[in-house]
């Protein structure tokens, strides 16, 4: 593949971003390996310090420390290749601190979703090296964030991540929209988002690359996105079944063993629909609320007395290997993943 991804003055040899996956699924091992291959490796900051000493007592300090550690380590593993960035959920209670820590640690890019990152430009100086991107799922959301950033900060996005309805994790669609996924013409939505950002490219005299995400599985999907006018793609689920992925072997095996019918749309405690593998946890919480013994103060808006289960505990249990009693987010194409490979092998497959 003879196509680079240019984001301002930063360049990745390949137009492939590895999507951020938390808790602990995409940290420095995976992100560093992807960057080493010339892509953009993304670390999820969501409870990134879950295995740091003292996490049970002080999650905020452990997460801040781990953000620094994993960005630095990923860059070392990349050996000067590709780019290393972070995905930071708007829904996090310590969102602003995570952004500041990532900038201080030298993250090349910050991608922000699970809500619109209205104040992200306030937290990342335009003069610093770190590039910023909101995740949007509709023309309406793209117009809203671009207009708001221009009005309030006289600034625009460095790039846009357009996440479609086939993505894993938290989704920017209603349950009703996700039920109609087979009849949805999302290609037209992508074209409209690409068209709506052109106004801001002219105003700020800069290119705003568009990255298409959600359901990207192989080279044919990449080519299709590029034909629509995208500048690159973001792929997440396929990187789980790699040797370098930071999740446990049991978590990776759950992906390899998964069938299409195992995938379910759930309602996350974050307040958004999400796509995950059906397991014992999901079956239990469909019937009754899971007792919450400890609050990890992870979300800005969360009432432990009302949510069906603790998302931090569920995601940590899963990434450590308890894939029946933890929460295993996944993309719609997880049933097509049937073998373990190295990041090098996967990247070669995607671009050859």
From TrEMBL:
CDD domains for this protein: NPD_like (cd04730)
Keywords noted in UniProt: Flavoprotein, FMN, Monooxygenase, Oxidoreductase
GO molecular function: nitronate monooxygenase activity
Top-rank lineage group of the source organism: Bacteria
Purpose: Nitronate monooxygenase that uses molecular oxygen to catalyze the oxidative denitrification of alkyl nitronates. Acts on propionate 3-nitronate (P3N), the presumed physiological substrate. Probably functions in the detoxification of P3N, a metabolic poison produced by plants and fungi as a defense mechanism.
Identification of the protein by name: Probable nitronate monooxygenase
Organism: Mediterraneibacter faecis
Origin organism lineage: Bacteria, Bacillati, Bacillota, Clostridia, Lachnospirales
């Amino acid at each position: 593949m003879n196509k680079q991804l240019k984001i301002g003055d930063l360049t990745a040899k390949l137009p492939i971003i590895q999507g951020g996956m938390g808790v602990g699924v995409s940290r420095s091992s995976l992100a560093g390996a992807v960057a080493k291959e010339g892509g953009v490796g993304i670390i999820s900051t969501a409870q990134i310090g879950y295995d740091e000493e003292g996490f049970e007592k002080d999650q905020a300090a452990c997460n801040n420390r781990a953000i620094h550690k994993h960005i630095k380590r990923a860059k070392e593993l990349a050996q000067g290749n590709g780019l290393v960035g972070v995905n930071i959920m708007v829904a996090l209670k310590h969102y602003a601190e995570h952004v500041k820590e990532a900038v201080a640690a030298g993250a090349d890019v910050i991608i922000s979703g699970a809500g619109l990152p209205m104040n992200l430009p306030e937290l990342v100086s335009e003069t610093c090296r770190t590039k910023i991107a909101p995740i949007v799922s509709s023309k309406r959301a793209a117009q809203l964030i671009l207009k708001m950033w221009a009005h309030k900060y006289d600034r625009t996005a460095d790039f846009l991540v357009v996440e479609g309805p086939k993505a894993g994790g938290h989704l920017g669609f209603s349950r009703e929209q996700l039920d109609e996924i087979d009849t949805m013409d999302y290609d037209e939505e992508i074209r409209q988002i690409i068209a709506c950002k052109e106004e801001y490219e002219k105003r700020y005299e800069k290119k705003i690359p568009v990255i298409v995400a959600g359901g990207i599985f192989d080279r044919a999907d990449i080519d299709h996105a590029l034909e629509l006018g995208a500048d690159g793609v973001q792929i997440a689920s396929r990187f789980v079944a790699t040797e370098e992925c930071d999740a446990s072997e049991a978590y990776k095996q759950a992906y390899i063993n998964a069938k299409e019918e195992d995938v379910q749309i759930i309602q996350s405690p974050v307040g958004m629909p999400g796509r995950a593998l059906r397991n014992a946890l999901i079956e239990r919480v469909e019937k009754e609320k899971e007792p919450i013994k400890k609050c990890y103060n992870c979300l800005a808006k969360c009432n432990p007395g009302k949510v069906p289960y603790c998302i931090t505990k569920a995601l940590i249990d899963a990434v450590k290997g308890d894939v029946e009693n933890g929460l295993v987010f996944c993309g719609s194409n997880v049933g097509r993943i049937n073998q373990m490979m190295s990041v090098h092998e996967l990247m070669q497959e995607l671009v050859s």
